[in-house]
Design brief:
33% helix; Ubiquitin-like (UB roll); 3 domains; 3-stranded mixed sheet; 10-stranded mixed sheet; 384 residues; single chain; transmembrane helix; 10 helices; alpha/beta; Rossmann fold
Length: 384
Amino acid sequence: MFKRIDWKFVFKCFAWIVCLGGIVTLMSFVSVKKNTVTVTNIKILIPGADNFIEREEIDAILKQNEGKLIGRKLEQINLHAIEEKIKSNPYIALATVYADMEGVIHIEISQRQPLLRIISSSGQDFYIDKNGLKMPVSPNFTANVVVANGHILEHFSGKVDTLITKMASDLYKTALFLKKDTLWDSQIEQIFVNDKDDIELIPRVGNQRIILGNADSLQTKMTNLLTFYKEAMPKVGWDTYKTINIKYTNQVVCEKNNPDPLLALTGKAKPAKPTIASAKKVMDSLVKAEIAAELRNNPETADFVVPAVKKSVPAVAKAVHKPVKVIPKPVKTAQKSAVVTHKTATVTNKPVNVTHKPVNGETKTVKDKVKAKSNKTVVKPAAP
């Protein structure tokens, strides 16, 4: 007979009875203790960096709902009612209120996490949190989230509510997708809805608008955009295109910025502006040509040296003359007069200084010869 008894089942039932009895006994002690415990302190915990609600506001809710709590009997305070009152705040997602046997009331609050800020076409301003619920903006804190504006017809009554229009749902899905990807979360700084009800993304890098269309096939569209960024943008430049249309899942359509009006009218490239370097090269060539001509005409008079020219200063030719012994040559009396003409080089800097000592039989200095040539004079050989 004893073999037929299921001892395991009996042991489990006995264990459950003992546990239940222990719980009842413990609750009775707690109830008795609760009648004698008074509230000594209130601890409020608000985790997170977003401070939509402050401790002072929680204290105001407690005072409005229950009055002064410290010093009162714990059994006289309705903790559940306090919890429900705190949850009714539009910035609070979850609240937990409990008390310990030392008379301390603990209040733990979880704030709503905004995901997107909406500025509707009617001028209403509100947030959409991570759960897709509308919540008001706060005078105490401004969340660092993406802003969406333009042709948005979503209405906000001032209380926590669900989304009504399809456009608001698409904006929520788009913002949620961007938030999950670190690249797009950093690159996209604004969302705009145009008159055609197409969603446009405004990037931080580049001046173009990214036409997304709607929130369908977001993964495919953004993958196409990423491929375009990697392969095309480094070659053509980030400011080449005015719009990048990715609303079609199988292609990327781009529109270039307006070309230069002068190029559009003439069809030719604009002439390059003269630079200091080009002007310096022209001046150097003129001075060198002048000196070369002088050496050809008077090889026995002087040796010319062209010094280096400083940056952004017109070239200056300095003539350096060394004394040279000149052996007079007989001149034929019947020789025809030779006319030597020379073009002048325009020099807009200091005049050329040439020093020369008289040599046997010379009546004119080299300075006089250079001056005569620069004034387009005619020099005839001396008569015998």
